[in-house]
Write a structure and sequence with these properties.
Order of helices and strands: EEEHEEHEHEEEHE
Protein name: Barstar (barnase inhibitor) domain-containing protein
Strand content: 35-45%
Mean pLDDT: 93
Shape: globular
Radius of gyration: 14 Å
Helix content: 25-40%
Number of strands: 10
Length: 137
């Protein structure tokens, strides 16, 4: 997997969140199964979907990307959290991992060159890093 750190900002705050990252993943992201977890810190999400996210993290239940997008649309900010996706053809191998780090940046891990190109096309402050800052995969 390749690892990236994304820090696009507007007025010293991140200019994107989970919803925008999911949009970059397009149809595959919506068809994938997702697991929500805490990324080594307490899951911290602001918005109307907070309770649902907390429950998903507690149970480890997989949800479809369509459901994750619905929850993300009712979220104002992910402060800490990890979202791990699995494509139907490889249900045990992570496809894309998204990690929110203290509202400072997001980390993304993937081997999919189409996802990497889409991320680079959408975000300006994106850099490849040797591994995740928190909880390396």
């Amino acid at each position: 997997m390749k690892y990236f750190q994304i820090s696009d900002k507007n007025n010293h705050c991140l200019s994107f969140d989970l919803k925008e990252l999911l949009e970059v993943l397009s149809d595959h992201g919506l068809e994938a199964d997702w697991i929500v977890s805490d990324a080594d810190e307490e899951l911290d999400i602001m918005g109307n979907s907070r309770i649902e996210f907390d429950q998903l993290a507690l149970t480890g239940t997989r949800i479809k990307g369509v459901q994750l997008m619905e929850l993300a649309q009712n979220t104002t900010q992910v402060i800490w959290g990890q979202f791990t996706s699995f494509l139907p053809i490889f249900p045990k191998r992570p496809w894309v991992i998204l990690k929110a780090f203290d509202s400072s940046f997001w980390e993304v891990a993937t081997s999919d060159s189409n996802v990497i190109n889409a991320l680079k096309g959408r975000f300006e402050d994106i850099k490849e890093v040797p591994e995740f800052w928190i909880n390396p995969v």
